[in-house]
Fold each of these.
Amino acid sequence: MRIVIAGGGLAGLTLAHYLNRHGLDVAVYERDADIAAREAGYRIHINSTGTSALHAALEPRLWELFLATCGMPSEDMLLFDERLNLRPGRDRSATEGTGVPADIPEHLVVCRSTLRRILYLGLEEAVHFGAKVTGYRTRPDSTITVLLEDGATVEADLLIAADGINSAVRAQRLPQVRIADLGSRHIAAKIHLTDEAKAKLPAELFNAFSLAYDADFTGLTLGPLERTDPTSPLIAEQDPGFRREATADYALSIFNSLPDRMLPDEELFTAGPDTLKAHALERVTGWHPALVDTVRLWDTATVQALKCRSCVPVDAWEPSNITVMGDAVHAMSPALGIGANTALRDAHTLGGQLLAVASGDKPLLAGIAGYEQAMRDYAYHALRMSAFVGQKVIGHLPLPE
Ligand SMILES: Cc1cc2nc3c(=O)[nH]c(=O)nc-3n(C[C@H](O)[C@H](O)[C@H](O)COP(=O)(O)OP(=O)(O)OC[C@H]3O[C@@H](n4cnc5c(N)ncnc54)[C@H](O)[C@@H]3O)c2cc1C
């Protein structure tokens, strides 16, 4: 069975490891020019759903490398007002995973870019860069011709869309899936955690995750990442770019507001990082001084504007040998920090089904049907819960019906 994955993000690469580890034939087509072509995101929270999936997919050395590069923060995820008074806590169970604990804390934080680099190790022959998938054709014998932007084609028995929220494969396979703009705008940046920066940041914000917001749902997030074992020999044997990134401590900080209080979209998404930082700074004027300092500490080179979007759940569809995973089918509000965990769970669930297919335990379409049914159940639940919590703490729109 020739398995082709469109998209080499967290979901696609984790599934590729899982399949590769069990001897299945898998190839990944990724639009980026190479693994370091762009900084693929900031710090993300990983719970036991995500760690279980990674543990199942990664060979022991890569698993150890993952643990050395991630952070093990305090368990606290706290909410504040703009004067840094504590607000009532949110339901912690919403951010907890469903995976099997592997003798590590429930809440880890990882740099998305570092994790992606780790996921590439060992897959050098399976991953094709500079390969943007634009769609596919099905042939009379039900095999698939995958279409690439440069005109090349690839033959497959199974095509898996893991190409993120703007997925070309999902648009063709499931045109009924809509992407909703949840009407919240974000300006995100990194703060390098030097001793000087740490001295200026308030200790009460040094949790797994903290969000301070005012009565108008204008908010500021801080999520530190302090690497567990930067001196690990497993890091030392990687290339200089990997070593530099994987030993640097930083915090993710996000300023969020509603569109009518933010720069107009035309400006927000074209403005340079200086303008974006200046806007965030102006908007937190009068807040607790430590929150103002937090924005002042942003590394301007890392500032970027983001839009909060979500897939809208759809009714069950007939399974075929073209399936979907991760943000391609269930991108969600970032309010709970569980989008990547759910994408990793897809890799675990789909990988398990494909193993059963490969060993002759079930036909391919039964395996795909089993995965898609399970995925719709847990992923749509996570997506709806994220949208609900996002309404309460970010003030974004509800999911459209
Ligand atoms: C600000 C922010 C904070 C977040 N924090 C968290 C968190 O704390 N915890 C959490 O669990 N989740 C978090 N998320 C969500 C998480 O980042 C996503 O859910 C996760 O990255 C989805 O992984 P994916 O592999 O499905 O998609 P992606 O990461 O989007 O990967 C898709 C890949 O496909 C490639 N691609 C795209 N189009 C094509 C194409 N046509 N052909 C070939 N390749 C293509 C892309 O280059 C990319 O490599 C956060 C998201 C945001 C925006």
Amino acid sequence: MQSSQLTKSQAMHQAQIAGLSTFKWHPCDKCGCTERRAYSGMMCVECDRQRTKKYREANKERCAKMVSNWQKNNREYLRMKRQAQLEKTEFRQKLNTICGEYGLTLLEVVTAWGSRTAVINFYHQSEAKFRIICSGVKELSK
Ligand SMILES: [Zn+2]
């Protein structure tokens, strides 16, 4: 896929379809970074980082209060999110260990198991679980 053949919003749309939060684009005029946020505004990632950092530094108390309020109101969500991430990490570590032991790439290990479907299913399920958690939280907050 050549990004130069797409308009900026088309490139963003493609990234969104692929489930990505950023996409590659022409270098930023300010900093030369080639990564853009894949949502409205399509800001340069590096400039956005700097802007956020400045805002947080200028509004330290306000930001800290917002974060702690959000955490207080979303304890169950955070607990489930941590658990889902832990499961995903453990699975990835297991795969990486096997890769290391046999000097194989991830794809070779998965193929060697003959259960590529099982691995894909695992990822889909953990992704699905995460989505369920997210939508569950949304349901609760309605
Ligand atoms: Zn920039």
